[in-house]
Amino acid sequence: MYGYRLDNFGVTRLFLPESLANRFKLIHQMENALRELVLKYPDGKFEGLFISDPLRATRTNVLDPNSIGMYVAGSSYNPSYPLRILSQKRNTDWLDKRLEEFSDREGAYEISLDFIIELLEHCEPDPKHGIELWNPKTIKASLEKIKTIKGNRAYLVVRRNRDLNQARRETQGILSGREDELAPRDAPALFIYRQNANQKEEIEIWWPQLRFPDGNYVLAFSFEW
What is the number of domains present in the chain? Predict the structure, then answer.
């Protein structure tokens, strides 16, 4: 609450658009993740790495350099909702073919980070649900930065026949139970789950969740609110 007037918290009401409320919530989540990292390394031995903005502005005032997003070591991110229109069936078919050798009854497969980048290029987020942390170009640039630090190694967890059909926050995740424990935390992990077609006439689609490896780093990037 603005001003930290906790005595008035019970009678305080805040009216603002849902999109703005979601942005404040996102800022709060990023700040909490950063605080947890600072507490984990109280001696200050962690590194901030800036990811070049995927959009090259022709004028310096097009993008606000003070509008900073962060991917924190060990944290997970997902699209709010995948784009599930008929034209995306080509991506579903492509991913079906590329992932057919990976069982959905196994744990994590060790693969290359390049393969994760290739898979994510066929996972398009639905823009009407907001694209802030899950900007495909920023995600790709961040993974390429991780590759220079951790090497070309990653984990893949595949699951099929899921029935998620509601949008969620970009830090909320799509996993259930203790599925986060299926992959080790020393390299990037992609959890990619195939969602069935639903009664809203949305096609079957692959919905990804990416977890950055543990470590003493923060990946920062600039984006427009």
Answer: 1
